[in-house]
Automatic annotation (TrEMBL):
PANTHER family: 6-PYRUVOYL TETRAHYDROBIOPTERIN SYNTHASE (PTHR12589:SF7), PYRUVOYL TETRAHYDROBIOPTERIN SYNTHASE (PTHR12589). Pathway: Purine metabolism; 7-cyano-7-deazaguanine biosynthesis. Belongs to the PTPS family. QueD subfamily. Its EC number is 4.1.2.50. It comes from the Bacteria. Keywords: Lyase, Metal-binding, Zinc. GO terms for molecular function: 6-carboxytetrahydropterin synthase activity; metal ion binding. It catalyses: 7,8-dihydroneopterin 3'-triphosphate + H2O = 6-carboxy-5,6,7,8-tetrahydropterin + triphosphate + acetaldehyde + 2 H(+). Pfam families: PTPS. This is 6-carboxy-5,6,7,8-tetrahydropterin synthase. Its cofactor is Zn(2+). InterPro entries: 6-PTP_synth/QueD (IPR007115), 6-PTP_synth/QueD_sf (IPR038418).
Length: 155
């Protein structure tokens, strides 16, 4: 049986732990955050069910890497959410993708690259030195497209 305990003394900064101890290492770390959105689209030049207007509940997963800062964070998960909400989701959620995205066939393969590029552009505006490592775009729970930094890099 697991024994539960109540914290007796809450750790205090500058008393129980010093500011310089908050950063534990100097390694690159990948953090990941996922989001969902609902959207409609149809495919051109495709002979199958997806040539007709239909919708999906998509899932997007971002992998972002960087060196931890002075308190041990790569990037605040809230910052990733702000970027998603203000710079990417507005073009996707409850939208007709053929209308709101740049001219393209709205395949998962095309969309994942567009989402990757939008996040990459937004991260360049951040003060930390984070970089996008991958984006996965699930069109269904078992089908996804992925864009990776090594495939997208213009370096």
């Amino acid at each position: 049986m697991y024994e539960f305990s109540i914290v007796e003394k809450l750790q205090k900064l500058e008393e129980d732990i010093q500011r310089h101890e908050l950063k534990y290492h100097q390694k690159r770390v990948l953090v990941s955050k996922s989001f969902h959105f609902d959207a409609a689209h149809h495919l051109h030049c495709y002979e199958g069910k997806c040539k007709n207007l239909h919708g999906h509940t998509y899932q997007v997963i971002f992998g972002i890497s960087g060196m931890v800062d002075e308190i041990g964070l790569v990037i605040d998960f809230g910052t990733i959410k702000e970027i998603w909400k203000s710079e990417i989701e507005i073009f996707l959620d409850h939208r007709y993708l053929n209308e709101t995205l740049p001219k393209m066939n709205t395949t998962a393969e095309n969309m994942v690259v567009w989402i990757y590029e939008k996040m990459e552009e937004a991260l360049k505006k951040q003060t930390n030195d984070c970089r996008i490592e991958f984006v996965q775009l699930y069109e269904t729970p078992t089908s996804y497209a992925e864009a990776r930094r090594e495939w997208m890099s213009h370096e």
